[in-house]
Amino acid sequence: MSPYLTFSPASLVNMSKAGAFDLASGLGGKIEKNDVLSAVDKYEKYHSDFGGAEAERKANYTDMVNKYYDLVTSFYEYGWGESFHFAPRWKGESLRESIKRHEHFLALQLGLKPGYKVLDVGCGIGGPLREIAQFSSTSVMGLNNNEYQITRGKALNRAAGVDGTCDFTKADFMKMPFSDNSFDAVYAIEATCHAPDAVGCYKEIYRILKPGQSFAAYEWCMTDAFDPNNQEHQKIKAEIEIGNGLPDIRSTRQCLSALKDAGFEVIWEKDLAKDSPLPWYLPLDTSHFSLSSFRLTAVGRFITRNLVMGLEYVGLAPKGSQRVQSFLETAAEGLFAGAKKEIFTPMYFFLVRKPQ
Ligand SMILES: C[S@@+](CC[C@H](N)C(=O)[O-])C[C@H]1O[C@@H](n2cnc3c(N)ncnc32)[C@H](O)[C@@H]1O
């Protein structure tokens, strides 16, 4: 990537290595550039604001989720970095530092030991996987159903020098191509919320985990404060679903009971958003300015919006790019509103064990 092609106030402070050129060239993922606009149309139609229904999203979850990640991955990498998740925030930490600490916490809770064979369920482009493998001297396999993200992740693994110990498998986490009892530890970061059925997904994780070993995750959930009969709450939930490729956001209680139904023994669980010294949603707060996450600030988003418009106009970014940018903005608004009302959390943590 030429630094001259990179419009990047943020690269000055090293928030994300992806610049405007990567944003434009990666937009649409594996979708043919001429088909991006129609893919956006099809994606939007899965959601309630565009007449879609939950049953249809669940029945077509592979198509819906893959379209979503083909369309948004380069935006994520550009704005957020290599790890696509939130984190509790502490004073004095950059977003990147908080994200790494959140990843280390999982490694610590799982008791990872050198030599362990670990599975990352729904691994994105592998930011957490590289960090956790290096932090704990383990081999981590990333499971992901999105081909574009795997191609990107493999290139980043080679660049980080972890390609000898870490790899990716392209498959659906509802039916994993691994034998029973084959992993020493499993984790999932903000990924299993895409599952059409939590019990089915957790049962697969249970099957491939060795007896006596642990599974830990951060789940996206509606909290007890969510009232399904409140129209404003419903609107916020729908905004989060469309903006994030989700069939239906489960409650913390539903996740907990699904874990038990799958056969797990619950060690402990907690919504970590409750104890975050600074709000986890700080990066989504447009009134907040941060140099280290400049692209997420009001000014940064304004620049990105115009940049995408310009790139689409001159043909460097495919037609439909601005529409993707727009539903991502809807997502950010929904997440922020859900967070302020405390009806939504992206960090419902649990540590569970497969009995001996
Ligand atoms: C929000 S991203 C989180 C990625 C990663 N855990 C991270 O924190 O950077 C959710 C991930 O789950 C993956 N995913 C969604 N549904 C999946 C499925 N049915 N099977 C496998 N992976 C899936 C997506 O492709 C994406 O990589």
TrEMBL record:
GO terms for molecular function: sterol 24-C-methyltransferase activity. GO terms for cellular component: endoplasmic reticulum. Transmembrane segments: none annotated. Keywords: Lipid biosynthesis, Lipid metabolism, Methyltransferase, S-adenosyl-L-methionine, Steroid biosynthesis, Steroid metabolism, Sterol biosynthesis, Sterol metabolism, Transferase. It is an enzyme of class 2 (transferase). One of its GO terms (biological process) is sterol biosynthetic process. Its EC number is 2.1.1.-. Coiled coil: none annotated. InterPro entries: Erg6_SMT_methyltransf, Methyltransf_11, MeTrfase_SMT, SAM-dependent_MTases_sf, Sterol_MeTrfase_C. Pathway: Steroid biosynthesis; sterol biosynthesis; Alkaloid biosynthesis; vindoline biosynthesis. Residues 68-355 form the SAM-dependent methyltransferase Erg6/SMT-type domain. It holds the Pfam family Sterol_MT_C. Belongs to the class I-like SAM-binding methyltransferase superfamily. Erg6/SMT family. PANTHER family: HYPOTHETICAL LOC100005854, ZGC:194242. This is Methyltransferase.
